[in-house]
């Protein structure tokens, strides 16, 4: 009996050390795959030269409170995380883009690798006339989200979809910024999706 307990304690201890050594955490992680996010494009190999994000598309976590708080302008797509700065590179406005129709309903899809108590999900879109060759800033985005989905502290399942109407009057290239705000930490998760109207 004593050997079994000792082995269990050692196993738990090694698991905890492994999490600490790799910088991992027990917090939630997630990303959007519809419209496909930049981090997912990197993870599935559609876009190369992405650095670490190709191995962990679910980890774009940064301070919550957007737009009054959160990541600094120019670092929004990476959640303010310099490890994932390739997501902030506009690549000359040439990220692969999902085709959409302005004014139409669209189903947004999240994938989660771990669950967490959630405040809400918000979706922002760039203004008409913004420059897709520059890094994303608050001034590039409409001031209010076009879709807010309250989640009241619930934990999402492994996949979650939201339906909403894309703002009318959009044409050309745009970016949709999805923000998943966590209820019981100081962070949120960020996902930028390039779209073409």
From TrEMBL:
It is found in: Secreted. Residues 1-21 form the signal peptide. Keywords: Secreted, Signal. The keyword Secreted applies. Gene3D superfamilies: chitin-binding protein cbp21. Residues 61-90 are annotated as: Disordered. Pfam families: LPMO_10 (PF03067). This is Chitin-binding domain 3 protein. GO terms for cellular component: extracellular region. It comes from Streptomyces violaceusniger (strain Tu 4113). Its main location: secreted. Residues 29-195 form the Chitin-binding type-4 domain. SUPFAM superfamilies: E set domains.
